[in-house]
Amino acid sequence: MSENTSVKCPNCKEVFKVDDSVYTDIVKQVRDQEFANDLKNRLEVAEKDKASAIKLTASELENKYQRQLAEKDKTISDLQFKSKSELAEEVSKKEAQIQALQSKIENANIQKQLEVSSAINSVEKERDQLKNDLKLKDSEKEILEKSLNAQFKNKLEHKDEALKLKDEEIERLKDYKQKLSTKMIGETLEQHCEAEFNKLRATAFQNAYFEKDNDASGGTKGDFIYREVDSNGDEIISIMFEMKNENDQTATKKKNEDFFAKLDKDRVAKNCEYAVLVSLLETDNEFYNTGIVDVSYRHEKMFVIRPQFFIPIITLLRNAGMKSIEYKAELNLVRNQNLDITNFETKIEDFKNGFARNYDLASRQFGDAIKEIDKTMTHLQKTKDALLSSVNNLRLANNKAEDLTIKKLTHGNPTMKQKFDDLKN
Predict the structure, then answer these.
(1) Tens digits of per-residue pLDDT, 383-392?
(2) From 322's CA, which of 121, 153, 244, 282 has a CA 20 to 30 Å away?
(3) Which ranges in 182-289 belong to alpha helices (H)?
């Protein structure tokens, strides 16, 4: 095609020229229009085919369902005809079962009513019993309260008197023990020992010397010196005494051993055979509370005693001295007669053993006496404490009785709580 082509319009018959590009567009438009028209025709044909197919399919399905429905109706008719008698029999059975069930239901209702009635009667009986129990508990509580109040009142009335008696007994025993193991009231320890000795001086110690040591030329002096000689002027025994006392209120507490060295020095200076410390120090020390304590392992021929052993230690040492003089006389006689010294040594050993036994026996007896007194005081103190504790327990019991309520009795027991709530309602 040339660059300019003459085209005649079929409608207006007008001739106009178009170039190649315009011609191409026109051809394209014509082609597009033809394609659209062709597509539209094809769609219309397809739509008609689809409608025909649907109509045909619906007709076939309707016929199919009609046939199936006719078959089902025939089957139902056959079944109805075939089982009419069986259904009548089944209905009769069902009616019989229904009658039986109705009868059972009626019986069950009657039984249920009986059980409910029985349960109600049981609950009413339990309620009445609970009422009676409650009244009984209230009566018991009232009786218990009256009894506890009476006992408490009685205990209170006798408490002060009993405590007073126990206190008096304790004080009496303390005073007795103090008189036995400590200084006498209103006296110093030295005065007490001197008084005890003077009570027996005229009868038991007629030839004895017992006086204050007033010689301090050596720098120190003891408290008392005891000396005794026989009819020949030979010394039987000599003892240097030191007395040490200390009140409970003393700030600085001394020990017995603090005075051993000074006592031994005084014994040697005054030419005494024995040294005895009469002491109230270390009252809680069981070693010194056992009786006559031999401390010769520290210093030669030294003893520590409590005041109650003042006279016994003099007696024991005095008897030992007298025996010693007898043995000395016998020794001289034995020597003069050229006898075997063995007999003398045996007697000396016998004396030592006898003295040790007597000393040990006396020590245990005095120690046992002190322990028994301590036990009695401890028992009385425990009795006093028990009385005080019983009063407190009675008070607590009374408080618990007063605090007893229905609310506390039913706490944690919902069944009982419900019962009491029902009674209130």
Answers:
(1) 777 777 766 7
(2) 244
(3) 189-204, 260-269
